Amino acid sequence: MLHAIGLDHLLWIPGDEYLRNEGISDRAIDEFVSAITRNFYAQNPSEIHAFACLVALVGGGTVGSVYTVEGGTIQFCQRLLERSNATVKTDTEIRSIEADGSTVSVATDTEDFEFDVLCIAAPLESADISIGRSLRGVDLPEDIDFVRLESQFVVGECSPEYFGSPDAPPGSVVTTADSTEPFYDLHRQPTDGDTGPYVFALASREPSVPVTETDIFYDVTEVQTIPWDAYPEFTPRSDTAPFRLHPNVYYINAMEPVISAMETQVIASRNVWNLMKETD
After folding, report:
1. Residue 87 burial (CB < 10 Å; 0-12/13-18/19+)?
2. pLDDT digits (tens, 9 = 90+) for 73-91
3. Across residues 154-180, what is the average pLDDT?
4. For residue 102, is it left (φ>0), alpha (ψ between -120 and 50) or beta?
5. Contact, 138 vs 245, CB < 8 A?
6. What's the pTM?
């Protein structure tokens, strides 16, 4: 898809090298760009391809008002599924996929299904799904590594002195590539009142340093730590997984190793829809 719009060359080159070639100074890359890519993807500009670097910069340059959705953004997916009138199977584990002629067979832990067309929206690299013989000869996605993060949510008071600010705790802190801080970024979460205690969120590579062992916070009343596979490692690459794995099997998640965001997954979904329409 990037080849079709003339952007595939951005996957071949590290982000910092591309920016230097475009006349961006090392200081701007080290102090500004790295803070944004670490905040968005927990990776430095030298570690990711130029396309991911530029997408992060677009998000980092957001101006105007930013809103949250009461009840969480998961409602977008829930409402879309409701309006589609689709049959949704939850708590169902997919065991295997096999394409046979004009149909696709899907075996789950409860029952088997047959479909005319199958769209895979999960990362096959970590989905633990057995791929049938008919699909083994196609260009299946290569294994990719994910950035393993630990998100710590802290209820307490942030020390202004720790960050050299005697008056008020910072609302957001980002770090650069040479930072020795025990986190990539720190953000104060929105609350109903203007006074503490506040809720702070920190992102660190696993295993993280417990915040109770640092001088960043005091009067801590609660800490929750959530480990998760946050983003693919956006290392420069010369090729990507195809959107069509088989005449009847499509791979929406082909986009994620290129860039990981809700907006780009919507674009990937529309691209798969366009490919399906072409074969009608």
Report:
1. exposed
2. 889 888 988 998 889 888 9
3. 85
4. alpha
5. yes
6. 0.85
